[in-house]
Design goal:
The complex is a heterodimer of chains A (473) and B (346). Chain A is built from 18 helices and 15 strands. Chain A has helices at residues 2-25, 39-53, 64-76, 94-100, 156-161, 173-185, 201-209, 229-243, 254-262, 275-283, 322-332, 338-345, 356-359, 363-375, 386-389, 398-404, 409-420, 425-446; strands at 28-33, 56-61, 83-85, 104-105, 131-132, 135-136, 151-155, 189-191, 217-218, 223-224, 266-271, 288-292, 304-306, 313-316, 380-382. Chain A is 42% helix and 11% strand. Chain A is an alpha/beta fold and 473 residues long. In chain A, strands 2-1-3-14-4 form a 5-stranded mixed β-sheet, sandwiched between helices. Chain B has a domain at 113-345: Orthogonal Bundle (MetI-like fold), CATH 1.10.3720.10. Chain B is 60% helix and 3% strand. Chain B has a two-stranded antiparallel sheet. Chain B is flat and about 75 Å long. Classes of the chains: A alpha/beta (473), B mainly alpha (346).
């Protein structure tokens, strides 16, 4: 009996020792992002990957705020995921930012097919942006032609109740005002515009972009430009909508205004390409039409910036499985693969490595694609990248220092002016002057030429020609 | 050891025909004995503790063992964050990577020149002062009423006034956001009754946003201070009220000459607690105005939060410097509290 007991104990001890050791041989990748509403899709996707490769994957999502606060701490304590999602302070130079803090490692080229980059349009992999010293650190995830701010969403029921039809969807600012007055006469407000924090940008970008630019920096002159007459014209137009009681009054948040639009308190909400998915998943609201932002009465005279800013997924420097992580990225970015097909079918957005029109079935999302690709193909154009013109710009603190004078300065003052009806021009001049002064002082101290940021020969309604880049250093 | 309390009573009371009481102009003093008045303590600080009374051996080990968990938590969640914050404040650090860019006092120099920081400092000060000035007298008045013998349903009233305190600050903010916006219930009522011609966006108007936040805060925290006052009032000896009644004092005179002087030391503590707690306002701002409209409700805590966690690139070092500066302010307030408490006791 004693010998039997001893034998059982020994067997148990061996089992307990061997099983974990065996388990350690099975690789488990951890991936994190903050699209919590897509968690179910990610779980299904990783199961597919595991079935194909035998590599286990755990995909975790957090709320955006929690993710942004938590991820740096995970790197501090060595528990960072193998693949993570991150949007840098400078969306173009995120790779440089992350290399600076030693958060990322390059993709393992040995497991990538030779034609990996052919999945994207030419010019999407750029030295200094997602390639550093010949090593590829990331890849464009969402496309940058369709994805982004710039669309007008209409509540069809509110629109119809006001006696309006699809033919009445406004294409100019005057038509927008007239249509809004018609909606207002029927009861609801016409526009739901968020003003809390920097949420006003959702309305600003499309309306400023059709008149001038969505940026607060003019890449033709190399100057901060919130006081440009064209920006002031756009702002005064929006202010006129408030003065005419066409906009839900008050300082409302983003979620409040989306809900107001979804539940029929307003007819129109300006938002990004993600709104069809947000309306459907968050508010169960699908009776919506997407339309291009109305232009000034004399026509389209501006553009939204199309930039190489969608490099969002990275392999962490602490990952012990860079090869497996790269395998997952390769699997994820197959143009006709499970991930692309289902991501697009579920209406989560557009992808830079897939034929968006082939798989997207959401009718509103298809409208968004049609606007960007057909109706308004130059709604978004390639903007110049100073970091390509002059490599020193990549490490410049000029934009950061100018922004740090007072963060969200433009949005706070715009919100205040819209709430009180005050004249925005004096404040705009103050903001531009302060930022330009700080910017100039910084680049002078850094020894960077101001010409690195100015491209006077470029027409901001057309794609920037890379041949225009000087040698600049 | 109990100490008798000090009160100063002046009563002019003439009782004709009895000769028992005449105009009392003298002071009746029952003193909280000061160190000068009390006999020397039996254990002077200068006198060494006898060896036989010192903790030693296994007793010391047991004490250390029981204190250890608290000390660990205290060091881990109080001392370490404090030291770390001060350390970060001397560095340029965006929260990512190593803390290795030492810049000395540059963050403090930049903070001193940051108009947004000083605006938030001023807003915080205004919030704390006005919040305290409204909350304390109001809660004292209610506490006095609720401690009166003739008051009915005291427990129900206590519960009613205390209930807002159990509501999370964020939820309270959301509820009032809905109630007070231009399409909310309050504006609906006021415009329907003709009191207002046009709705007022209480939280969206820079002229009304801060005072609205203050009033919401008073509503929410009111019950807590009412309880403090009630505890203080219950420590006023009944005999003093009886003596005052015999002397012919009315309710107002009892309040002025009995209640307030007796509770003065505690009132000083409550005052400073209230002020210091109000300085730390954050949740209500985050849940309602997010510092707006403009920067009319921008407070220091929210400034720090924005710099460290909201706006990219994060500025942990800068936010830490702001936190240290603000912490010094709170420390000064707490130190003053101690001074005024001691003064009140004498």
């Amino acid at each position: 009996m004693k010998k039997l007991s001893f034998f059982i104990a020994l067997l148990t001890l061996l089992t307990v020792s061997i099983v974990p050791a065996m388990a350690q041989d099975a690789v488990t990748l951890r991936i994190m992002n903050y699209s919590a509403e897509q968690q179910e899709f990610y779980e299904a996707a990783v199961q597919e990957f595991t079935a194909e490769t035998g590599i286990n994957v755990v995909w975790e999502t957090l709320s955006q705020d929690a993710y942004i606060e938590t991820l740096p701490r995970m790197f501090d304590d060595g528990s960072a995921p193998d693949i993570f999602f991150w949007l840098g302070a400078n969306r173009i130079l995120t790779v440089s930012e992350l290399l600076d803090v030693e958060w990322i490692q390059p993709l393992d080229q040995s497991v990538l097919p030779d034609d990996f980059q052919s999945r994207w349009e030419e010019g999407m992999f750029v030295e200094g942006i997602n390639i550093i010293d010949g090593e590829t650190y990331s890849f464009p995830f969402n496309d940058n032609k369709i994805w982004g701010a710039g669309y007008m969403y209409i509540n069809n029921q509110v629109w119809a109740d006001a006696g309006l039809s699809a033919e009445d969807i406004p294409t100019t600012w005057s038509e927008l005002t007239a249509a809004c007055e018609t909606v207002r006469e029927s009861g609801p407000y016409c526009l739901a515009i968020p003003l809390e924090g920097n949420h006003f940008q959702r309305t600003w970008y499309p309306l400023a972009g059709v008149n001038y630019t969505d940026q607060f920096f003019d890449y033709q002159t190399g100057q901060f430009n919130v006081d440009d007459p064209r920006h002031l014209e756009t702002f005064e137009y929006i202010q006129s909508l408030y003065a005419a009681d066409l906009v839900i009054p008050g300082v409302n948040g983003r979620d409040e205004t989306r809900a107001a639009m979804a539940f029929g308190e307003a007819a129109i909400y300006f938002g990004g390409a993600w709104m069809p998915s947000v309306f459907a998943t968050t508010y169960d609201f699908t009776d919506v039409t997407a339309a291009a932002a109305p232009t000034p009465d004399d026509g389209l005279s501006g553009s939204l910036a199309q930039r190489n800013s969608e490099n969002k997924y990275f392999i962490s420097s602490t990952s012990e499985h860079p090869a497996e992580a790269t395998m997952f990225i390769e699997w994820m970015t197959r143009p006709d693969g499970y991930f692309a097909q289902n991501f697009l079918e579920l209406g989560f957005g557009t992808l830079a490595f897939a034929d968006n029109g082939a798989y997207i079935t959401d009718p509103v999302m298809l409208q968004v694609i049609d606007i960007a690709m057909n109706q308004r193909p130059n709604m978004r154009v390639q903007y110049p990248e100073p970091a390509i013109a002059c490599s020193a710009v990549a490490s410049s603190q000029a934009f950061v220092n100018a922004e740090n004078i007072r963060r969200n300065w433009e949005w706070e003052e715009m919100g205040l002016a819209l709430t009180t009806g005050a004249d925005f021009a004096p404040v705009a001049e103050e903001i531009a002057a302060a930022k330009n002064a700080e910017f100039a002082a910084t680049i002078e101290a850094e020894g960077i030429e101001a010409s690195c940021f100015a491209f006077p020969d470029w027409d901001l309604t057309t794609n920037f020609d890379p041949m225009m880049y000087g040698t600049g250093e | 050891m109990l100490r008798p309390y000090t009160l100063r009573l002046q009563a002019n009371n003439v009782i004709e025909g009895t000769g028992i009481m005449s105009q009392i102009a003298a002071e009746t003093i029952a003193t909280q004995d000061s160190a000068e008045d009390m006999p020397p303590p039996q254990t002077s600080k200068k006198q060494a503790i006898p060896y036989s009374m010192r903790v030693k051996g296994w007793d010391f080990a047991w004490i250390a063992t029981f204190l250890a968990p608290f000390l660990l938590l205290y060091i881990g969640f109080t001392i370490y964050p404090l030291v770390a914050t001060i350390w970060y404040s001397f560095h340029e650090w965006n929260g990512m990577g190593a803390v290795d860019d030492f810049i000395g006092l540059q963050n403090y120099v930049d903070i001193a020149q940051d108009e947004s920081f000083w605006l938030s400092f001023w807003n915080t000060l205004v919030f704390a002062l006005v919040n305290t000035a409204i909350k304390l007298p109001l809660s004292l008045l209610v506490a006095i009423i609720l401690t009166q013998k003739w008051m009915w349903f005291k427990r129900i009233w206590r519960t009613v006034f205390f209930a807002p305190l159990v509501i999370p600050v964020a939820l309270a903010g959301l509820v009032f956001d809905f109630l007070l916006n231009s399409r909310g219930a309050l504006n609906d009522v006021l415009t329907t009754w003709g009191i207002l011609e046009r709705p007022i966006d209480f939280l969206g108007n820079p002229d009304t946003a801060l005072i609205t936040i203050i009033l919401i805060s008073v509503w929410q925290i009111f019950g807590q201070y009412m309880i403090y006052w009630m505890a203080a009032l219950q420590n006023v000896p009944e005999s003093l009220y009886e003596a005052a009644s015999i002397d012919g004092a009315n309710e107002w005179e009892k309040l002025r000459h009995v209640t307030l002087p007796v509770i003065r030391p505690v009132a000083t503590i409550i005052l400073f607690l209230s002020f210091v707690n109000a300085l730390k306002v954050f949740g209500l701002i985050a849940a309602t105005t997010e510092g707006g409209p403009g920067q009319s409700t921008y407070v220091v805590s929210y400034f720090i939060y924005n710099q460290a966690f909201r706006d990219m690139p994060f500025r942990y070092g800068y936010a830490s410097a702001a936190a240290v500066l603000f912490g010094i302010t709170v420390l000064i307030a707490v130190t003053l509290q101690g001074y005024f408490v001691r003064r009140a006791q004498h």
